[in-house]
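User: structure tokens for this one?
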Amino acid sequence: MASQQKHMVLEAVQAASQRWKTSFNTGNSAGCAAEYEKDASMNAQPFGVYNGRDEVQGFWQKLMDDGFRDVDYIDPKIEVIDDRSAVLSSKWKMNKAQGVIHKELWVIQADGSAKLREDNFEALA
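Assistant:
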């Protein structure tokens, strides 16, 4: 893969991830859900599995309604796996929880933006 393409994937994922965090931290669950593909799947341990943007948005809205905010990624790593996708992993913390992102699979869309296809994370006690 050409380094220019790898750089494009990396930049798109970084921008999309930042948009997601900004949406979460401003209480915008629709903005969070907009960063997922229409048929995305999210495995939020120990809460459950959510499929599609509507279920994903419902999960984030409930978390926001319960007072969760101020998410921060700790030492994130992004691995570009091909010319259209990358995997992000990281530790994370917020005001009322912390955990691990095991796998965010970001896929480049037709418009050049990145969207989440798979989101697998865990909240730790």
